[in-house]
Protein: Probable cytosol aminopeptidase
Organism: BD1-7 clade bacterium
Amino acid sequence: MDFIIKPQNSWAKTNTDCLVMPLFDTSKASALFAAVDKEMGGVLSRLKKTKELSNKAGKVTTLYAPESASFKTLVTVGCGKKSDISAFRKNMTAAVNAVRATQSRNAIVLLDAFDTEDADENTLIKHAANLWAIADYRYDETLSKKAEATRLKKVYLTSTLSAAKAKSLASQGNAMAEGAKVAMNLGNLPGNICTPSYLANQAKSLAENYDKITTKILNESDMKKLGMGSLLSVTAGTEEPAKFIIMDYQGAAKKTKPTVLVGKGVTFDSGGISIKPGARMDEMKYDMCGAASVFGTINAVAQLDLKINLVCVVGAVENMPSGKATKPGDVVTSMSGKTIEVLNTDAEGRLVLCDALTYVERYKPKAVIDIATLTGACVVALGQHAAGLYANDEKLSADLKTAGDETYDRAWPMPLWAEYDKQLDSKFADIGNIGGPEAGSVTAACFLSRFTSEYRWAHLDIAGAAWKSGAAKGATGRPVSLLTQYLINNG
Ligand code: BES
Ligand code: MN
Ligand code: ZN
């Protein structure tokens, strides 16, 4: 999407297909309302009297303008009382959908007239660009009828900020949307297409598209040599070869320490021998959404050309039952040397991640963040609104929470106390892979924390945030915005 910043009050001088104007719940009509009303030949004030023009939050009205006006269509967006960023996002989304339902190829959004209590204009520009850019995502890769190409290509945003500042914020919102679309698409692809090999090829094409990205793929024999017995125990039951994907983005001097992102890339999680029940098992194609968010984030970082070093690592495997599959009670040896008793083959994400977390020690990273659809228990704890946030470093935790708040891609801090960690003790190995029925998201994080003592580390459990079920089934592209914002803020 093309975003062009326009000064305040420049809309009448800009010929556009569509004008998007907020309507707030105030008794006195604004100068803006009067000016647009004049262009509309007085239609607005007439409709306001008959209450046909609603200023109720989320209510949009589409009106066609006289030929003399600088715009062909007017979309008014009810915003109710001056509200918060959450309502702003809802109202703006309603506006985007209304504009998309018209023939408009471009639109001018009177962004400076939108207002919230809890966000400044900087924040609103970023959110607006993000929402306009993400709205054209349609999944069609496995449909014989392809989605219609979007007509809307150019959006003007009016702003009181300096054009350079506003433009850079809009680019950030746009890049986050493009990254989220990459993540949504990978997430939505079925498990028979989006295999570990497919993800590896995605990584290779990223390296072809961006000079600053190099890709390395390790196959199963490479992983065996490295001693990744834990990761390999997950792939034992499937015919699909596992891949260990490393993507290196170099945007700063070589000696600058990188931030490392580690994504869980289980392209289908049947549970293995501890097989899952049938209901909604199809949704376990989404068990690679952590990996998808890593792909989305490196895309956004490359698009923004950030001056940082970033290493992205994905453990890509399929978890299936078979005569060769790992069995409950089996003991495996991880790359760290720690032995693990696999008490439940459905707790496979942590088995993949622990070897990846040991592998990344070699980068002497500034920080390591892993992202995983790790536990059903996290969905019970936090639902879909927040990712579970765990960290062995207070500042890293706070910085990630801030990035989530800024982008409304939120995460919520959870504990890593020794009392929970104890639930993982095993009689037959150094550690068990499950911690019993209580606090399942916490004990999963505690498991990972036993492999991350060498660096600052955080874990995002995105089991609830990564996709929606039911009628709106689909990947959300989270937490690409959170991660990208974190990298913009902290490198
Ligand atoms: N991928 C699942 C977690 C999951 C389940 C995410 C449902 C989203 C929705 C993970 O591999 C898993 O199966 N975890 C088990 C752990 C348990 C066996 C300790 C779970 O959550 O039930
Ligand atoms: Mn599982
Ligand atoms: Zn899983």
About this structure: The chain has two domains: 2-161, 180-490. Residues 180-490 form a domain with the Aminopeptidase fold (CATH 3.40.630.10). The radius of gyration is 24 Å. The longest helix spans residues 163-188.
